[in-house]
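user:
I keep going back and forth on a fold encoding question. Separate attempts, laid side by side, tell us more than any discussion would. Would you put together a sequence-and-structure record for a protein of your own picking? Write it directly below this note and I will take it from there.

assistant:
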Amino acid sequence: MQTDSKFYNLLGLARRAGKIGWGHDAACDAIKYGKAHLCILTSDASERLKNEFRRECSFEGREVTLCETEKTMDEMKFIIGVRAGVLTVNDEGFAKSLKRYILNGGN
C-alpha cells in the first residue's frame, strides 16, 4: 500500500503543478505535439480507447511510454479530481518517477 500512496502523491503533485493532461482530446494532443512523456490508461477504459492510445503512442516513431495500470477511473478521480480513462504526464521528471512505481512496484 505504501507504493500506492507514493503513486497517488506523485500523480496529485503533477496535477497541481499543471503537468497532467486528462481525457481523450488532451491526451491525444499532448502525444501528438510531443509534450507527453508517459501515457496512463486505467483498467476500466474501453478496449477501443486502449487500442487507440497503443497506436498513438508509437505512431511515426513516437516513444511515449504507455502504462496500463490497475487503477480505475474512479481512483483517478480521487487522485486528480477528474474521472478519466486516459491521462498523460507532460513532465519528464514526474514521468520517470511514476514509471518506476507503475512498472516496478515502486522499487
Observations:
- The first strand starts at residue 20 and ends at 22.
- The domain at 2-104 is CATH 3.30.1330.30 (60s Ribosomal Protein L30; Chain: A;).
- The helical segments are 2-16, 24-32, 47-58, 73-80, 92-104.
